[in-house]
Amino acid sequence: MTAAKQRVLSGMRPTGQLHLGHYHGALKNWVRLQEEMECFYFVADWHALTTHYEHREVIEQNVYEMVIDWLAAGLDPEKCTLFLQSRIPEHAELFTLLAMGTPLGWLERVPTYKDQQEKLKDKDLSTYGFLGYPLLQAADILIYKAHWVPVGEDQASHVELTREAARRFNHLYGREANFEALIAASLEKLGKDSAKRLEKSRKKFQETGDEASFDGAMGFVLGHAELSAEEKERLQGWFKGTGRAVLVEPQALLTEASRLPGLDGAKMSKSYGNAIAMREDAASVEQKVKRMPTDPARVKVSDPGNPDACPVWQFHKIYSDAETCAWVRDGCPKAAFGCLTCKQPLIDAILKEQQPMLARAQPFVDNPKLVREIIESGTQKAQKVARETMGDVRTAIGLNY
Ligand code: TRP
Ligand code: SF4
Predict the structure, then answer these.
(1) Which domain covers residue 232, as residue numbers?
(2) Residue 346 beta carbon below 6 angstroms from any ligand 2 atom
(3) Which of 55, 243, 276, 310 has the fewest Cβ atoms nearer than 10 Å?
(4) Burial zone of 18 (CB within 10 Å; 0-12 exposed, 13-18 middle, 19+ buried)
(5) Is position 265 within any domain?
(6) Distance from Cα 21 to the centre of ligand 2, integer Å
(7) How much is the pTM?
(8) How many folded domains does the chain comprise?
(9) Is 276 inside a domain boundary?
């Protein structure tokens, strides 16, 4: 077995300034992952076009600004690969090829399809491109053979569709014309007895779905020195009955991201006007927190409050240490202090959190060329991987004529 790091892939649409909700809900996690795995993060500008095809200037404004926000959060181009989707047309090629065998119903049933159409009523989303959104996302993921996709709960159905698309592809195209002969040759390498045992546990697995026989057999196959990586992959497909796994089924990585709500307690979103940008200036942060609504039952300073009915408390849960939290839980119901007093440690904590972000962003704000260079070299690295996969994919389908 190789010690290669598992691969992670994720993307974000450049449709607005990133805010502290993005930082706590996603970016903090991306930064952590770059230490442990081989991470690819990209700007999903084509996905942004599915909803903003009439307002592409929004996208243009935000592509590089978003990358600066990523760098501000601590993504390090030495540790992860940052790139731009539209610069790698191979994504579109895989999307087209996957589209051939994807039933319409799979896409119509993805819950975000109807949800988003309802939510974004001001936009005409009865387009072919918008219906295909999750399949384009599947191509983004599969082209890098990613194992893990860190996304929010709302994207879980897209990763599930990706798994189905990979399974279907492997089923349709993972069997070479001489598949059976190749399997027989590999089994021969293993020796008669092992081959027999493998046949037996394969039968059991396909009849009963017994995970233990799968794990046992794969442990044996993967550890076998005589077999090439391709043979191991093919044997795995033969065992499962799917054919060779040309594309890898990814898994959603749903970390319990600390969820930071908006200033009013609803989901933080620029369009709701309840967001604090990652690089918002200090005076504005202070003003926004001071104006945050609090427990509506607390009209006068002498009225007791209830933190559970107050959005400020949600912020304390993320930003404050145990001692400050205890001070709020204890003092608020006793009306021991006013709401502005309660908010001050939050203002301090947010400003403190922003310090290193602003410092990391500064060189890129001063010299935007640096950002373009990072994206340039990331795009080259990513494209190399994407091209390799497309080579496999074309061969598997039989398009090498
Ligand atoms: N749909 C994702 C979002 O809105 C963005 C995205 C596009 C993505 N392609 C992806 C995320 C591939 C993960 C993997 O947040
Ligand atoms: Fe909210 Fe703090 Fe005011 Fe209580 S004291 S209502 S927790 S802001």
Answers:
(1) 179-240
(2) no
(3) 55
(4) buried
(5) no
(6) 21
(7) 0.88
(8) 3
(9) no
Task: Give one word for 45, left, alpha or beta, with left for phi > 0 and alpha for psi -120 to 50.
Answer: alpha
The greatest distance separating any two alpha carbons of the chain, rounded to the nearest whole angstrom, comes to 85
Note the pLDDT tens digit of each residue in 145-164.
999 999 988 899 999 999 99
Can you tell me which residue has the tokens 């990814």? 250
For 112-160, strand residue ranges (E) read: 148-150
Does residue 208 belong to any structural domain of this protein? yes
Q: At 324, list the tokens.
A: 């400050």
77: in domain:
yes
Half-sphere exposure of 344 (CA within 13 A, CB side): 5
Does the C-beta of 213 come closer than 6 Å to ligand 1?
no
The CATH number for 299's domain is 1.10.240.10
Counting ligand 1 atoms within 8 A of each CB, the residue from 33, 39, 47 with the most, and so the one to mutate, is 47
For 289-319, how does the pLDDT look when each residue is reduced to its tens digit (9 = 90+)?
Answer: 999 999 999 999 999 999 999 999 999 999 9
24 and 96 together in one domain: yes
Residues 90, 132 within the same domain: yes
Q: What is the DSSP letter of 337?
A: S
